[in-house]
């Protein structure tokens, strides 16, 4: 079935190539190519540009929330340093590769050891005599594997630079972090994202209404990848029609519509438990992700003005617990019902008899 | 052939409910390009049916010619993983969660291999061939976090040659980086009315005459808005009694009846003897392979209507608490029994407080 046969020739390949560029997701298509194209991370870009000009680069540690351009930046840096043939100078390892301690000891060390001469230069690029090892999603590496990197990083620092990319800097062990120059990537501002999305929209012929733009920006919350994916999904899924509502945008990125949260909120403010139960069942049946419902409830609680802070604090503790338990694998419907019941009790300030007070204050020993 | 399979719609045009979703899926498949998709929704809502119909729309009838492959893989830690893959010329369906703790390996190696080895140019020549092939990953919510993390870059790198269609019940358990790379498609459970309509349609097609409305509604309600279950129930009803009557009994699984009995026992009397009795019943359920979270949820569902509002709050709280314990603990009976004991204590305390005896 996969037999190619030389007879099929280059035409098919060419067709496939053309198809490929067409089908490329916009996130890949509009990935910033040079360091200058990186939006919003001005300080990072300034420092790195300086490093590129002089051809000196420290070990790097990029951290920040998803979709802020960490991977794009290091690839752009590599491109500016080594020119179009940069692939041979970098080793990119991410969570989809086996990165246990064995790989660090063998593959990474091997790549780190071999020397590149400064001779194979591409004209117009600094081409400093070192290689870059990119450890993408480094916070998913085990501590043992990270520890195995320590000495390797120092020993071969003359001929190899490491770039660790991660979301949570706290999950990188201290000895590694202290060997790197740290760069924090900030969530993008709405203005910057809007400008970029508009540019992509124009290039792809997708019309974007202001209402839809606002919905996308809110959903993405500083995550450029999410914004672009949502834009593309909206374009493909709704065929570019302008009838797309903010709720639809929210749903596409796994959020919940306002109406649903609102009716749940109303059910909470009634006294009736059965009412609440029915509403929670409805959420489950409709298939909305409970975690997103929790996040929206969180927003509503914070914004609610008629409630004392102490009560809010009780609910917050409950929300935090519910989230943790769901991540542990507990049943979502039960947790949602539990937290909603807690809110109902707390907000109504129902004075509960001695035996039942336990219910709210029980610390969960985990 | 079961009615569920026999009457499963195979094309988007034949889909029964969620018309707007169908229309959008059609728009999506129009230019033959699908992004990565994430289908989520409760069981029996028709996620899988929609995925297959979408693939059929994109690739043509070829996707229905599937074959079952059993493959064995060796992990670097010398463990052997057996995997069942359902494959056609255009797609492969994998349940990576089957591999248990080896799921990360399956994602890292197997899926990557499929993504890399596919030759688009060759397939373009075939009827319905596209520049990409599709991998359907079911039950992604059961994958470990490491396995999900391993999906991240793979999804980006090989998009041109391979599209992933993920399918799960709970989108909350899919990590954010994976979710943000997909177009999320929510498939809600069908409403009672839609289920009734479908039951009627099937009944007519099977020339079983008209289905009494009351019976259809009762089946829809007992099924918990699970279409698959509703159709199975209808077929069971048909075997039991035909022609249908409105008063006909809708058979629920015997373990559900058994749990209902347990709930009655618990509210009747709260004593150590009853606890011992309850333990026997719980063991009976567990030895019959009823998952403990299902036992707990069903028990709660049976208990709640019997309780006062104030008590409901507490019982729900403790049910949530012990359900989590069951999940993280390793000896299920401990936690189930603890819940039963807790319930008895709460109930007794409530009765004494309210009625003073």
UniProtKB/TrEMBL annotation, chain A:
Please name the GO terms that the record assigns under molecular function. Answer: ATP binding; ATP hydrolysis activity; DNA binding; DNA clamp loader activity
Kindly state which keywords UniProt assigns to this record, in alphabetical order.
Answer: ATP-binding, DNA replication, Nucleotide-binding
| Entries under CDD domains matching the protein | AAA, HLD_clamp_RFC
AAA+ ATPase domain segment(s): 56-189
Per the record, its GO cellular-component terms are:
DNA replication factor C complex; nucleus
List the SUPFAM superfamilies: P-loop containing nucleoside triphosphate hydrolases, post-AAA+ oligomerization domain-like
Report whether Transmembrane helix shows up as a keyword of the record: no
Q: Which GO terms describe its biological process?
A: DNA repair; DNA-templated DNA replication
The answer to whether keyword Nucleotide-binding applies is yes
The family line of this record is: Belongs to the activator 1 small subunits family.
Protein name, UniProt field: AAA+ ATPase domain-containing protein
Automatic annotation (TrEMBL), chain B:
One GO CC annotation, please? DNA replication factor C complex
Entries under Pfam families matching the protein = DNA_pol3_delta2, RCF1-5-like_lid, RFC_C
Q: One MF term in GO for this entry?
A: DNA binding
Subcellular location(s): the record lists: Nucleus
GO terms in the biological process aspect are: DNA repair; DNA strand elongation involved in DNA replication
The source's superkingdom equals Eukaryota
Q: Does this UniProt record's set of keywords contain Nucleus? A: yes
Q: Which SMART domains match?
A: AAA
AAA+ ATPase domain mapped to chain residues: 33-189
| CDD domains, alphabetized | AAA
Keywords assigned by UniProt, alphabetized: DNA replication, Nucleus
List, alphabetically, the PANTHER family matched: REPLICATION FACTOR C / DNA POLYMERASE III GAMMA-TAU SUBUNIT, REPLICATION FACTOR C SUBUNIT 3
Protein family (similarity comment): Belongs to the activator 1 small subunits family.
Protein name as catalogued: AAA+ ATPase domain-containing protein
Species: Nannochloropsis salina CCMP1776
């Amino acid at each position: 079935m996969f037999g190619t046969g030389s007879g099929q020739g280059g035409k098919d390949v060419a067709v496939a190539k053309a198809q490929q560029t067409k089908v490329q997701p916009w996130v890949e298509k509009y990935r910033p190519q040079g360091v200058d194209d990186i939006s919003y991370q001005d300080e990072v870009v300034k420092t790195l540009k300086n490093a590129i000009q002089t051809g000196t680069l420290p070990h790097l540690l990029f951290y920040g929330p998803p979709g802020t351009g960490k991977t794009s930046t290091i690839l752009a840096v590599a491109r500016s340093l080594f020119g179009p043939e940069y692939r041979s100078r970098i080793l990119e390892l991410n969570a989809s590769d086996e990165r246990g301690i064995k790989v660090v000891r063998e593959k990474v060390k091997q790549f780190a050891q071999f020397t590149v001469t400064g001779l194979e230069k591409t004209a117009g690029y600094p081409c400093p005599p070192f290689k870059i090892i990119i450890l993408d999603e480094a916070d998913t590496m085990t501590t043992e594997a990270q520890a195995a990197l320590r000495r390797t990083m120092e020993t071969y620092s003359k001929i190899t630079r490491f770039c660790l990319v991660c979301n949570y800097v706290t999950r990188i062990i201290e000895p590694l972090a202290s060997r790197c120059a740290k760069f924090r990537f900030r969530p993008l501002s709405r203005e910057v994202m809007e400008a970029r999305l508009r540019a992509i929209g124009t290039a792809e012929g997708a019309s974007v209404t202001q209402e839809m733009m606002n919905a996308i920006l809110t959903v993405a919350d500083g995550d450029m990848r999410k914004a672009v994916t949502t834009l593309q999904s909206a374009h493909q899924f709704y065929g570019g029609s302008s009838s797309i509502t903010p709720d639809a945008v929210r749903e596409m990125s796994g959020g919940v519509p306002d109406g649903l949260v609102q009716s749940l909120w109303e059910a909470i403010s009634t006294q009736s438990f059965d009412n609440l139960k029915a509403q929670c069942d409805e959420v489950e049946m409709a298939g909305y992700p409970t975690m997103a419902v929790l996040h929206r409830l969180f927003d509503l609680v914070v914004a609610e003005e008629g409630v004392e802070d102490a009560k809010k604090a009780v609910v917050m503790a409950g929300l935090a617990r519910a989230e943790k338990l769901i991540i542990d694998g507990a049943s979502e419907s039960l947790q949602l019902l539990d937290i909603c019941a807690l809110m109902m009790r707390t907000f109504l300030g129902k004075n509960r008899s001695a035996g039942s007070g336990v219910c709210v204050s029980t610390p969960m020993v985990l | 052939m079961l009615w569920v399979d026999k009457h499963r719609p195979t094309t988007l045009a034949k889909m029964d409910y969620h018309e707007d979703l169908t229309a959008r899926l059609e728009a999506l498949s129009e230019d033959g390009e699908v992004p990565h998709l994430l289908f989520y929704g409760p069981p029996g809502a028709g996620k899988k049916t929609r995925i297959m119909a979408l693939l059929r729309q994109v690739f043509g009838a070829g996707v229905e010619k599937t074959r079952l492959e059993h493959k064995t893989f060796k992990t670097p830690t010398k463990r052997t993983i057996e995997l069942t893959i359902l494959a056609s010329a255009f797609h492969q369906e994998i349940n990576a969660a089957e591999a248990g703790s080896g799921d990360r390996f399956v994602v890292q190696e197997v899926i990557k291999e499929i993504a890399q080895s596919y030759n688009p140019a060759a397939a373009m020549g075939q009827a319905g061939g596209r520049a990409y092939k599709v991998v359907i990953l079911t039950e992604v919510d059961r994958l470990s976090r490491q396995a999900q993390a391993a999906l991240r870059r793979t999804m980006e790198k090989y998009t041109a040659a391979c599209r992933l269609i993920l399918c799960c019940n709970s989108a909350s358990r899919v990590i954010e980086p994976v979710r943000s790379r997909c177009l999320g498609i929510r498939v809600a459970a069908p409403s009672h009315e839609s289920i009734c309509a479908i039951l009627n349609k099937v009944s007519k097609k099977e020339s079983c005459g008209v289905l009494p409305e009351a019976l259809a509604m009762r089946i829809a309600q007992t099924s918990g808005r699970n279409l698959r279950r509703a159709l199975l129930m209808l077929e069971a009803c048909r075997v039991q009694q035909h022609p249908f009557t409105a008063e006909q009994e809708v058979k629920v699984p015997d373990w559900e009846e058994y749990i209902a009995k347990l709930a009655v026992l618990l509210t009747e009397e709260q004593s150590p003897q009853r606890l011992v009795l309850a333990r026997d019943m719980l063991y009976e359920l567990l030895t019959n392979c009823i998952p403990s979270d299902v036992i707990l949820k069903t028990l709660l569902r049976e208990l709640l209507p019997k309780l006062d509002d104030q008590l409901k709050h507490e019982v729900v709280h403790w049910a949530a608490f012990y359900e989590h314990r069951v999940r993280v603990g390793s000896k299920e009976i401990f936690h189930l029994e603890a819940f039963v004991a807790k319930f008895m204590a709460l109930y007794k305390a409530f009765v004494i407080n309210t009625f003073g005896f």
